[in-house]
Amino acid sequence: MSIYNPPAGWFKAPTGAERLWVGLALTWCIIMSLAMPYWHFYGKQNSTGESYRVSVADYGARVQQFVESNTVGTEQGVPIVEIAPGGDGYLLARMWAFYPIIKLKKGQTYRLHISSLDLQHGFSLQPLNMNFQVLPGYDHVLTITPTSSGIFSIICNEFCGIGHHSMTGRIIVED
Amino acid sequence: MATRDPNGKHPIQKLMDNPWLLLVLGIVIPTVSYTIWGWIELWLVPTATLP
Q1: Residue A102 near residue A172, CB atoms below 8 Å
Q2: Residue of A79, A94, B11, B47 with fewest CB within 10 Å of its CB?
Q3: Minimal CA separation from A52 to chain B, in Å
Q4: CB of B8 within 8 Å of any CB in chain A?
Q5: ipTM of this model?
Q6: What is the DSSP letter of A166?
Q7: Sign of the alpha-carbon torsion through A45, B46, A123, A89
Q8: Cβ within 8 Å, pair A53-B51
C-alpha cells in the first residue's frame, strides 16, 4: 500500500504497441512452457523421474553385492563393473567419489540406479552435460541407452564439502 | 478482454487496489503449487525393491 492512493481510474489497459508487446511476450511464455513437456517426451534426454525410497544401509549393501558379482577389472583400485544388457546397475555417490566405474555396451538399454550414502551430491555426465540430483534415502533410476562409445566422466556439481572438486567418476561405453 | 464495470473501474485495477486479496493470493498460490504439491510427491514415493 502506498502512502498516497493513486487517483481513481489510474489503470489504463495496454493499447497499440504496448498491447502487441505484452501479447508477444505472453505467447512466447506459452510456447516455452509447452516446450518443456514436449522435450521431455521427444528429446529422450530427461529423467522420467522414476525414484524410490530406500535406506542408506540397504542401498550400500546392494551396491557392494552388485560390485562383487559383476566386477570385470580395476582401475587405480576402483572396480570396473559391467551391467548385463537390459539389467540393473548401481552407482553410489559419497564424499568424495562415485563408485564403482560402470561399463556399458553401446546401443544396449540399462537401468542405472543412483543414490548417495551421506548427503546431497550432483550427477553430471560429461561431456554430454546431463545433470541429476543425487539424494541419500532416494534411489533415482535412469533408463539409459548409450548412443556413442568412449569414456565419459561423472563430476559432482552440487557442493558437498572440502573434497567436492575431486569428486569424479567414470562410465565406459564399448562398441 | 476485460471490460470496465458501470463504476468505470477496470477489473485489473480492482484487483490491484485490493492489497489483502493480493496478499492471500501471494501466499496461497506458492503454498499449494510448491509446498503442498512437494509434500504429496514425497508422500507418494514408493519403496525401492533394488532388483
Answers
A1: yes
A2: B47
A3: 5
A4: yes
A5: 0.70
A6: G
A7: negative
A8: no
- Asked whether the beta carbons of residue B48 and residue A8 sit closer than 8 angstroms, the reply is no
Domain coordinates of chain A in residue numbers? Answer: 51-174
Measured distance CA(B48)–CA(A58) in Å, rounded: 10
Query: How far B37 CA sits from the closest chain A CA (Å)?
Result: 15
Instruction: For domain A51-174, give the fold.
Output: Immunoglobulin-like (2.60.40)
A105 vs B46: CA distance, rounded Å: 30
Strand runs (DSSP E) across A55-96, as ranges?
71-75, 78-82, 88-94
Q: Which three cell numbers stand for residue A163?
A: 573434497
Q: What is the pLDDT of residues A18-65, one digit of tens each?
A: 999 999 999 999 999 999 999 888 887 778 889 999 999 999 999 999
Interface test with B, best of A4, A5, A11 (most B CBs within 10 A): A11
Read off the C-alpha cell for B41: 510427491
- CB of A50 less than 8 A from some CB of B: no
Can you tell me the distance from the alpha carbon of A50 to that of A88, in angstroms, rounded to the nearest whole number? 13
Q: Average of pLDDT values for A112-136?
A: 94
Amino acid at A14: P
Residue found by looking up cell 497499440 in the block: A16
